[in-house]
Amino acid sequence: MLAAVFPGQGSQYVGMARSLYDEFTEVRPLFEQAAEILGDDFLKLMFEGPEGLLKESKNTQPAILLHSVVGYELLKRRVTDFSPAIVMGHSLGEYSALVVAGVIDFVTALKLVRRRGELMSAAGDKHPGGMAAVLGVTTDVVESKIRELQKYGTIVVANYNSPMQTVISGEVGMIDRAIEGFKKLGVKKVVKLKVSGAFHSPLMEEASEEFAKLLDEVEFNTPKIPIIPNATGKLTRDKEELKSALKRQMRSPVLWTQSVREAKRFGIRRVIEVGPKKVLCGLINKIDA
């Protein structure tokens, strides 16, 4: 069985989706809808930059959603018997999964992720924070160190990307303190991420609460394809479970390792990554069932 997976923030690049726009006229209406909602300059920003403006969360998030949904639509139209048994996305990518599964429509998702990006950036300005990827050690080691540091300030595990890649999130000073702590433990690679805030942490609480009110106004449909939400790591076909998980997502850890294992237990043996770049397949290959 096949799963379709969708990437999150960080996969953007100047020129993204340009070739899809130029070569495949059947998906141009999706681009036109995005331009109508987000402004005439939005496609130019995706295709030509500048990179600094594209990296802003309010622009990055709808750009990646558009690229991913366009890619999926092309696969549906052009690949015989393309029929994923599961869809799932990493953080922002969960919105792409919700669109292709018919839970929310594309226009609604565009508006949601634009607002999501604005709220996350504002939260980062109000409560400065950062994130770092810890590589080459098990999740248990990372969790133990984070628990030890939490008495000094706000810091949590944000992304369980693979058994040997864990992302931490928290106050700027706490991230620096953690990096030094991991170095003393002999961890050879800890990479500070270029992000505008402490995503998937308690520092996103206010933004999460405001966004949850917006989600309450959105009607969710029963998914046509089962989804594994980030916040639970458990497969579901229940629209209320999906909404509840999405409300928590911004401040909760991304349970990617757990989600991939759940997919494999369901019987998934092949994965296609749909969207800009190819980050998730590399992580999935490192996760045992």
UniProtKB/TrEMBL annotation:
Keywords: Acyltransferase, Transferase. This is [acyl-carrier-protein] S-malonyltransferase. InterPro entries: Ac_transferase_dom_sf, Acyl_transferase_dom, Acyl_Trfase/lysoPLipase, Mal-CoA-ACP_Trans/PKS_FabD, Malonyl_CoA-ACP_transAc, Malonyl_CoA-ACP_transAc_FabD, Malonyl_transacylase_ACP-bd. Signal peptide: none annotated. Its EC number is 2.3.1.39. GO terms for cellular component: cytosol. The keyword Membrane does not apply. The gene is fabD. It comes from the Bacteria.
